[in-house]
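Milestone 3.1: sequence recovery, worked example.
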């Protein structure tokens, strides 16, 4: 899911893959535009959001993300992904997404508390998580002290660094509603989908 970007006068297009991975790319023209993201809550600048259907891999995303390439910026996500969250003596399944670090920035979906992911080194190799506003209200009572608290995600302690924009549940709320997000540059122990071998072979 995506927006027009400064370096290009063309459209930015979110491409959904059969594997559940999506990639946002900026193109001058595209004949297979599917829809505008008018109904996606929590995303800014809806008028510049579009989606298409195509097939691209994670290595394709990396090529498009080359800073010397033709695109101003791109973002990608994989979902739905199920996370096992352990609270006390119980474990629950929570749906989320694995996203590239600039996902929230590209979507113009700021945090209402804390921060979203960074394309710098703040999240690299770290077990950080952004949670939805709904998850924050239901499980933490909307407490501002949630930032810095931890969640047991798939058996690993992850630090909550931000609460997503109000009502934001991801770029594909009808097919991939999310309560939490982890970054592709985060600690690979958080999810099997983050391991380099999985990214290369399955996405």
């Amino acid at each position: 899911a995506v927006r027009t970007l400064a370096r290009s006068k063309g459209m930015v297009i979110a491409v959904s893959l059969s594997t559940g991975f999506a990639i946002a790319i900026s193109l001058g023209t595209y004949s297979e535009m599917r829809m505008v993201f008018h109904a996606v809550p929590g995303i800014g600048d809806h008028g510049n959001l579009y989606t298409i259907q195509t097939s691209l891999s994670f290595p394709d995303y990396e090529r498009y993300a080359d800073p010397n390439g033709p695109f101003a910026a791109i973002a990608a996500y994989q979902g739905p992904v199920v996370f096992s969250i352990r609270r006390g003596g119980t474990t629950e399944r929570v749906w989320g997404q694995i996203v590239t670090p600039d996902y929230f920035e590209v979507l113009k979906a700021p945090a209402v508390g804390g921060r979203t992911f960074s394309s710098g080194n703040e999240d690299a190799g770290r077990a950080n998580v952004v949670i939805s506003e709904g998850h924050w209200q239901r499980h933490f009572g909307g407490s501002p002290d949630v930032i810095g608290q931890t969640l047991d995600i798939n058996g690993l302690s992850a630090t909550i660094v931000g609460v997503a924009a109000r009502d934001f549940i991801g770029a594909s709320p009808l097919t991939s509603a999310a309560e939490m997000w982890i970054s592709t540059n985060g600690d690979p122990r958080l999810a099997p989908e983050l391991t380099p071998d999985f990214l290369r072979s399955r996405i």
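The CA atoms of residues 62 and 74 lie 10 Å apart. The radius of gyration is 16 Å.
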